[in-house]
Amino acid sequence: MKNFRIYSEPKRYKLKLYIDNYKDDIKVNFNVTITVNKCSDDQLKMSKNSAFYCVIPHCKASCPVSNSASCKPYTDEIVETNDANLNNCHCNNGWFGENCDKKIYINYSIIEDTGFYKNIFFSIGMLLYAISNIFSAYTSYTQWVGQKNNENTNNKLKFRMGNSSEDVLATSGCSPSPGSFNKSKSVKSTLNIKHEISGLSQKVEEISDNIIISKRNVEIEEFQDKGGLWYYQYNLEKENLVFNSIEFCYMDGDNPVNYFIFRLHSTTCECNLNMTKDVFLSQVRKVLDLYDVCSTFFERVDHKIVYVSTRNKIDYLTNN
C-alpha cells in the first residue's frame, strides 16, 4: 500500500475493496470512503493520463527557498511541466528584492516629511526674485535720470566713507584709492569665505573620522519581529550600563515584572499567560525572596553579625 495513488478529480469517493488470493478471493463487506482534495496555493497542478495531481513547484537556484523566500506556482491551471523559469519566487515577510536578499526594517522615524524639497523650491524662488531685481524697469526718462543722480550721490558718499582707517587693508600702509576700495573690500570677503570654507572642511573631516571610529566599536545585532520586520539592537556601553542600572534600581526596582526577560525577540508580542495577575506576582515574589535569601551570607541579629548557613536558608524557605 506504500505506492497506492489515486489520480482523480477532487471529489468524495467510495472504494469497494476486492482482494485477489491464490486460492479463494477475499471479499470485504465494507466500503472505504476517501476524499480527494484540491491542490493548495503552494502546489502546482499537473496532469497524468487525463487526471491531475499536485506537486511542489521548483524555482531558480537564485531563489533562497530555504531561507527568505518560497516558490509559488505561476498559474492555477493544469500544466504539463514543472518549469523553474516560470514559477514565481515569493519573498517571505521581512524580505524584498529580486532574489529576496534585502531585509525590511521597522521605520521608527516620527517625522514623515523633513521639508527638504520645500526648502529647495523656496530657495529657487528667492534666487529668481533676487535676479529679477537686477533688471529694474523705468516707466519714464525722468525717473531714470533721477535714479542715476541718486546713484552718483551714493557713490560719492561711499568714496568718502572708504577713506576711514577701518576699511584699509592691513597689508597696505596707506589708504586705498577710489578705484581700489571695492577691490580691497572684495579681497577681505574672499579671505573670510576661504577661511570659513577651510574651517568647515576641517570640521567635516573631524566628524567623518569620529563616525569611522564609532562604527568600529559598535556591535549590531538584528532580530526579526513577529510580523517579519527587522530591527537593530546595539550592545550597551559600560557607561550606559551603569546609568541604566542606577535608573532601574531607583525608579523601576519595585516592579517585579521588570526582572524577567521576554523569550520572544518581538516588539509586538501578544503572549497571554494562563494565570491571573495576582498569582503571577505571587510567584514572582517567591522567586525574588529565594534570590534574596540565597544571596545573603551575613545577617545582623541583636547588634551582632551572624553567618547564615545553607541549612538555615533551607529551613527558612521550607517554613515560609
List the helices and strands and how they pair.
Layout: E1 12-19, E2 26-35, E3 44-48, E4 51-55, E5 69-72, E6 88-91, E7 95-96, E8 102-103, H1 116-134, H2 141-161, H3 181-217, E9 220-224, E10 230-234, H4 238-251, H5 277-294, E11 298-301, E12 304-307, H6 310-319
Antiparallel strand pairs: 1-2, 3-4, 5-6, 7-8, 9-10, 11-12
| H/E series | EEEEEEEEHHHEEHHEEH
- Choose one word for the global shape: flat
Estimated helix fraction: 25-40%
Average of per-residue pLDDT values: 70
Radius of gyration: 42 Å
Number of helices: 6
Beta-strand share of residues: 15-25%
User: What are the segments in which pLDDT stays under 50 over at least 5 consecutive residues?
Assistant: 156-176, 178-191, 193-197, 203-216
What's the main sheet like? 2 strands, antiparallel
- Which strand order does the major sheet show? 1-2
Structure in words:
- Residues 156-176, 178-191, 193-197 and 203-216 have low confidence and may be disordered.
- With 320 residues, the chain is of the alpha+beta class.
- The chain has six helices and twelve strands.
- The longest helix is centred in the middle third of the chain and has 37 residues, at 181-217.
- Among the domains are: 12-103, no CATH class; 222-319, no CATH class.
- Helices cover 37% and strands 18% of the residues.
- The strands form six sheets. Strands 1-2 form a two-stranded antiparallel ribbon.
- The protein has helices at residues 116-134, 141-161, 181-217, 238-251, 277-294, 310-319; strands at residues 12-19, 26-35, 44-48, 51-55, 69-72, 88-91, 95-96, 102-103, 220-224, 230-234, 298-301, 304-307.
- The protein is flat, with a radius of gyration of 42 Å.
